[in-house]
Design brief:
heterodimer; A: mainly alpha; 12 helices; 0% strand; B: mainly alpha; 3-stranded antiparallel sheet; 16 helices; 6 strands; globular
């Protein structure tokens, strides 16, 4: 712990420091130096990677390599006129974007980016909730209300359809997603995300090896959950003309946008924690790979999250969009039975061992 | 529905379903122009679809009557504006039949070259928009990359990229510029590998197949009843291609196959059009090999006059179907009446039939598969 924090701790007392000051500082740092810049630059990265896939350049006008493009975009959205359709349901119209962003950002509170500190050091997470995985699922569920409310309150038939699509989609994909999480939870025997990562160290294997089925179900459901291609039905530019956020402009639209990308990062971070060993290096128990520990845990974590995000963007460059009913088919007829079977097999194997 | 929903009995309410009227277009991004569709939907399921056209009507057929024969070629550019060369070809073919001009062989071959390049570029535009409608974003850019090269070839030939105005009754306005055939040959050699790229992204893609197989099935009898032509008809298994059935220009002297589909669904029409691009490429290669020397314009009077009380119909196989011109002459340098048989307009008529019972998401796939250009539908 740096000395100035040490002195701050002495000034306010250890209880107040551990429960109020330190989380507040971490939240501020994580939000304003971590997540929000990451989201804006994720948009740039997506446009650049898509450009690379699609034989074009991508943004390159604002700043070198388009590096200032996200800042220009945010400024534009901030100063844009904020319109509201005639006869829109005002409270719902205003509330909807907040409901999408806030839960996605809250989830970062429980995601560990490093191990528990030895002694009184600063931890690489904001809080260690012993029901962390449950909290993640619960918070991820709230986002769908934003989409439904946004679509319904806009007083636009296309938006309404987008909202209803997202309702159906997210409800049917939360089930397999939740069930997919059960596998690693059974292996770890704990709901705390930190314990789950630690048990991957104890096993000497990332959980995606024994839980490969759950991993793939989680990835697919995660893509659907964050409304990304090939499951971007609620937006569906070419069918519903941006769906639930057709009528939004300015910063309210930006919040929806922010929510989508925050959700992408959340899904990647949760997948990394549960299946890809969180902050652990590859093969955490192999001695001769110990030189890899030279890379700080938070970098391993970020690396895995970025790799995951890249796959997300890659999907978008490759796949056409599913149709509404086919999406439900896939969810209910394939992924839920598979996830249940996975839980059964995991349970049997665990009993046998 | 006449009475308000709250007055209905529960049974009647259930029978009424949750129908709603949805206005699709004319500013919708997937209607490929200013097509407007009035839909009755139950949730996402389409019960009825009623196309409303006319937003791009410019009175082209009337304009034909106001200008001499050779000045009308630019009007044809602006009908199917993504396939100007084939429109030009159909029009000048009709005028040549009416006046009785014999086109020299070199001009016939160059026309075939231009028409087939145009077919490829039109199909590329179709594939690009069709794929992006179904949600596959990447083929769009790949197709435009190759289309750009074709437009460059057009630009080198006649200076224009879109509204080509590249044919005249009796022949061609220009000979090919120096080096054009080499550049065209370079394109022809590379192009099949590019088609493989598009196919690699789509043809065996499970999502693409689920979105297109069995969607909008059009059986051969219905297609013929509606007067459907072009890839739409061939997708339903009818091997009718005017290039084979009534060869014009140089088509009688080159080898090519006419691809046909089996099930008449969106996927078959996709396969037919992809194969047509390959066949067009084959025709291009043969035309470049066999390109004769000689004049590019028939001997003709300075002012063309149609014989008194003459009429003619000439149709060719355009990229979208049979594009034909029916011209009535009255002895003056202007046509007395000029009627167009536009493939887009006639193919569009079957859209309500195709969409019935499908979901809203299929509608954009079906608009894509009919491959309409509103400039031609409305004229």
């Amino acid at each position: 712990m740096p000395s100035w924090l040490e002195s701050a701790r002495e000034a306010v007392g250890p209880t107040l420091f551990d429960y109020a000051v330190s989380p507040a500082v971490k939240i501020l740092v994580l939000m304003f130096l971590g997540i929000l810049p990451l989201i804006t630059y994720l948009v740039l990265a997506e446009r650049k990677i898509l450009g690379f896939i699609q034989a074009r350049v991508g943004p390159n006008r604002v700043g070198p390599w388009g590096l200032l493009q996200p800042i220009a975009d945010v400024l534009k959205l901030l100063v844009k006129e904020d319109t509201m359709p005639h006869q829109a349901v005002k409270w719902a119209f205003v509330l909807a974007p907040c409901l999408v962003v806030a839960p996605a950002l809250i989830i970062f509170a429980v995601i560990p980016m490093g191990p528990r500190p030895a002694g009184e050091g600063l931890a690489w997470y904001i809080t260690d909730v012993n029901t962390g995985a449950l909290l993640v699922v619960a918070l991820a569920t709230i986002g769908v209300y934003g989409l439904i409310l946004g679509g319904w309150s806009s007083n636009n038939k296309f938006s309404l359809m987008g909202g209803l699509r997202s309702a159906a989609q997210m409800i049917s994909y939360e089930v397999p997603q939740g069930l997919a999480l059960v596998g690693p939870l059974m292996l770890a025997g704990s709901l705390s995300l930190i314990d789950i990562v630690e048990s991957q160290r104890a096993l000497g294997l990332w959980f995606f090896v024994p839980q490969i089925v759950a991993f793939f179900i989680y990835v697919v459901a995660g893509v659907a959950e964050s409304n990304r291609n090939p499951f971007d039905l609620p937006e569906a530019e070419s069918e519903l003309v941006a769906g639930f956020h057709t009528e939004y402009s300015g910063m309210r639209f930006a919040l929806f946008f922010l929510g989508e990308y925050a959700n992408m990062i959340v899904v990647s971070a949760v997948a990394t924690t549960l299946f890809l060993g969180g902050w652990l290096r590859p093969f955490p128990n192999v001695e001769w790979l110990a030189f890899l520990d030279w890379v700080p845990p938070v970098l391993w974590f970020s690396l895995k999250v970025f790799a995951f995000l890249f796959v997300y963007i890659w999907f978008r460059g490759t796949f056409p969009r599913y149709r509404f009913d086919q999406l439900m088919d896939l969810g209910w007829k394939w992924m839920i039975p598979l996830a249940l079977a996975n839980i059964l097999v995991t349970g049997l194997v665990k009993l046998a061992l | 529905m006449t009475e308000p929903l709250r007055d209905l009995s529960p049974d009647a309410l259930f029978a009424a379903g949750e129908e709603m009227e949805l206005n699709f277009g004319p500013q919708h991004p997937s209607t490929h122009g200013v097509l407007r569709l009035k839909l009755r939907v139950d949730g996402e399921r389409i019960i009825d679809c009623y196309p409303i056209i006319g937003y791009l009507h410019r009175g082209t057929e009337k304009l034909f009557e106001l200008h001499p024969f050779f000045q009308n070629v630019p009007h044809t550019d602006r009908m199917d504006y993504v396939a100007a060369a084939t429109n030009n070809l159909a029009y000048v073919g009709a005028v040549e039949k009416l006046v009785g001009l014999v086109v020299p062989p070199r001009a016939r071959y160059i026309r075939t070259l231009l028409a087939e390049l145009q077919r490829i570029s039109s199909h590329l535009l179709w594939l690009a928009t069709h794929a992006i409608d179904i949600g596959a974003m990447t083929p769009f850019f790949y197709c435009f990359r190759e289309r750009e090269q074709i437009l460059d070839l057009f630009e080198q030939y006649c200076g224009a990229r879109l509204t080509l105005n590249c044919m005249r009754p009796g022949g061609l306005p220009f000979d090919l510029p120096v080096g054009w055939t080499d550049r065209c040959r370079a394109f022809v050699e590379v192009f099949p590998s590019k088609v493989d790229e598009y196919e690699g992204l789509l043809t065996n893609n499970r999502i693409w197949k689920r979105r297109t197989v069995g969607i909008g099935v059009l059986d051969a009898a219905t297609a013929i009843d509606y007067g459907i032509s072009g890839p739409m008809l061939r997708g339903s298994g009818v091997a009718w291609d005017l290039r084979k059935a009534m060869p014009y220009e140089a088509y009688g002297e080159v080898e090519f196959d006419v691809p046909v589909g089996k099930n008449g669904d969106t996927y078959d029409r996709y396969l037919v059009r992809i194969e047509e691009m390959r066949q067009a490429n084959r025709i291009l290669a043969q035309c470049l090999d066999q390109l004769p020397a000689g004049p590019i314009m028939a001997k003709r009077p300075r002012v063309l006059k149609a014989p008194k009380e003459s009429e003619v119909y000439h149709g060719i196989e355009g990229p979208k179907g049979e594009i034909g011109f029916y011209i009535v002459g009255d002895g003056t340098p202007n046509p007395y009446r000029c009627h167009v048989r536009p493939p887009s307009f006639i193919n569009l008529q079957v859209l309500p039939e195709l969409t019935k019972g499908h979901l809203l998401a299929d509608l954009v796939a079906l608009i894509g598969t009919t491959d309409i250009v509103l400039g031609e539908v409305d004229r």
